[in-house]
Amino acid sequence: MKQDVEDYCRSCLRCIQRKTLPTRNAPMGHIESQGPMDLVCIDFLSLEPDKGGISNILVITDHFTRYAQAFPTKDQRAITVAKVLFEKFFVHYGLPHRIHSDQGRDFESKLVHELLLLLGVQKSRTTPYHPQGDPQPERFNRTLLDMLGTLTSEQKTHWSHHVATLVHAYNSTKHDATGYSPYFLMFGREARLPVDMAFGVTADDTPVKSHQSYVERLKRNLQQAFEKAQVASGNRNQQNKARYDQKVKFHDLQPGDRVLLRNLGIPGKHKLADRWGSQPYIICSQLPNIPVYQIRPEGKNHPIKTWHRNHLLPIGPTVREPRSVDDKPPKNT
């Protein structure tokens, strides 16, 4: 009898929706890139408007070099994204092999997709409510916010005027993950800064005899830097993964398993809201080499969704859906 009561309570969908806490169920994975402009990540950073009415920054980071650019904008419309990408980034740095973003409507618009298709640039995106799938812009956003936060009260009223110089300072500083400055990995030389001019020093005083010798030296220096940066970045990624995976409670999912979706994106206050949705879903398949699953609603002919493992809660076949308050118990005959 005791076991039957416990099983009955554990199969209560209402209790599962509210009381089950989300946990880390998938080990950490890392996006990989093979060189500069192989993978470029984009994201929007929103903050309080300045005197010019600018309240957004389109952040663009090169995954391999960590080189970043940030462009203040008045809105997040698709036409703004397309215009900034083409006129302020592509024409200066060339076309990337792939662009990665979240699922924002501005990045997933038909206009942006057609622009990238026309230019031959691949497009990928994160799963819903999983910013860890696009980590570099998120991390750079925090750095940029910290730098903007150090401005004086007067400077903060027109913060958009200071973004370019702050980003250049970031690009000229050695990155802990690679051991090199993003500027050096992108261009093969260190940026010449005002302090260098003041002291009359340069990063490399070796004379250049010809264009050919300069190209050969540049290729040699970049090759050495790329190899060292990959090793340093790989070591940092392994350390982060080991620390993250210590708290992972892995539970493998197979096609046909029943799951609930985490209740995310709830507007307003939601302290009393359920942690998980009420609609059960069925696992269709797992994407190759990543903890991301394609799912469909149980008993409904709806489109397939793609969600990260950390936002899925496995439930057994015996979980009972709550009876509607309008349902009347059968009469005794």
TrEMBL record:
InterPro entries: Integrase_cat-core, Retrovirus_Pol_polyprotein, RNaseH-like_sf, RNaseH_sf. The keyword Coiled coil applies. Keywords: Coiled coil. SUPFAM superfamilies: Ribonuclease H-like. Residues 32-190 form the Integrase catalytic domain. The keyword Transcription regulation does not apply. Residues 208-235 form a coiled coil. GO terms for molecular function: nucleic acid binding. This is Integrase catalytic domain-containing protein. It holds the Pfam family rve. One of its GO terms (biological process) is DNA integration. Residues 314-333 are annotated as: Disordered.
